[in-house]
Amino acid sequence: MTNSITTNIATFKKQIPEQVTLVAVSKTKPIEDLQEAYSAGQRIFGENKIQEMAEKWEKLPKDIEWHMIGHVQTNKVKYMAPFVHLIHAVDSFRLLNEINKQALKNNRIIHCLLQLKIAEEDSKFGLSLRDLTSILKHPELSDLKNVMITGFMGMATFTSNENQLKNEFSYLKEQFSIFKKEIDQPNVQLNTLSMGMSGDYSIAISCGSTMIRVGSAIFGARNYRK
Ligand SMILES: *Cc1c(COP(=O)(O)O)cnc(C)c1O
Fold first, then answer.
1. Half-sphere exposure of 103 (CA within 13 A, CB side)
2. Structural domain boundaries, residue 84
3. Taking the mean position of all CA atoms in its chain, how far away is CA 184?
4. Which residue CA neighbors atom 15 of ligand 1 most closely?
5. Model confidence, pTM
6. Domain CATH number, residue 28
7. Pocket of ligand 1 (CB under 6 A)
8. Ranges of the chain with pLDDT below 50
């Protein structure tokens, strides 16, 4: 790593437009790295494992907003329900139902994004447009009073082909705009479009992203050997 976490955060804050929220993706990184980012003013952190996020939440200042950016197993929702701020990758009505149940137990409203599959690779999680539509038009959605669907999330194909990235992000933005106009439900307020990571955030922003999830460009490369 050449630059410090502090420098990287400052550079991002200067670089990105005011309406774009920076989520610092701290998965696999030690507490000290998060503390350095916190001291640099960062208050929004993204993790992809519930247990790791809960351990970090316990140790760090309570004014941090914790975002779950990874795939969520229904039986683990209860471990983050007391504190999670935004769940980025909701991909079924069943999961939404469980989030609602656990949010109610904690007397909270949990914000969620629906993940639309935009990449061409099969390995990426996410909903087809059809399944996303059926969640938003589900007859029981309005009963889930302890969840608020605040937007969509997407992960583009891992490629350096800028045209392809642009097409995938633009498609997500287009669907977001269509549903924003169309859906009129008290617990659906579409204002957040989470797209863009270290390698593709500038293209994502040019395509209408309002929230970028940046890991390695802030904290350096991840080492998955533990
Ligand atoms: C790890 C991860 C990121 C951040 O990836 P970088 O390339 O390190 O910026 C963003 N979004 C999701 C869903 C991730 O799992």
1. 20
2. 5-219
3. 23
4. 70
5. 0.96
6. 3.20.20.10
7. 25, 27, 48, 69-70, 155, 197-199, 213-217
8. 1, 226
Q: What is the position in ligand 1's atom list of the atom closest to the CA of 214?
A: 9
Residue 1: the pLDDT is 47
Q: Are 68 and 91 in contact (CB under 8 A)?
A: no
The total number of structural domains in the chain stands at 1
**Nearest atom (ligand 1) to Cα of 69:** 13
Q: Which of 12, 52, 197, 224 to mutate to test the pocket of ligand 1 (most atoms within 8 A of CB)?
A: 197
SS (H, E, C) 101-169: HHHHHCCCCEEEEEEECCCCCCCCCCECHHHHHHHHCCCCHHHCCCEEEEEEECCCCCCCCHHHHHHHH
Nearest to 99 by CA among 116, 62, 108: 108
CA of 208 relative to ligand 1 center, distance in Å: 18
Q: What is the pLDDT of residue 226?
A: 44
- Centre of ligand 1 from the C-alpha of residue 212, in Å: 9
Note the pLDDT of residue 223: 76
Please state, in angstroms and rounded to a whole number, the distance separating the CA atoms of residues 150 and 21: 14
In a domain, 141, yes or no: yes
Predicted pLDDT of residue 225: 54
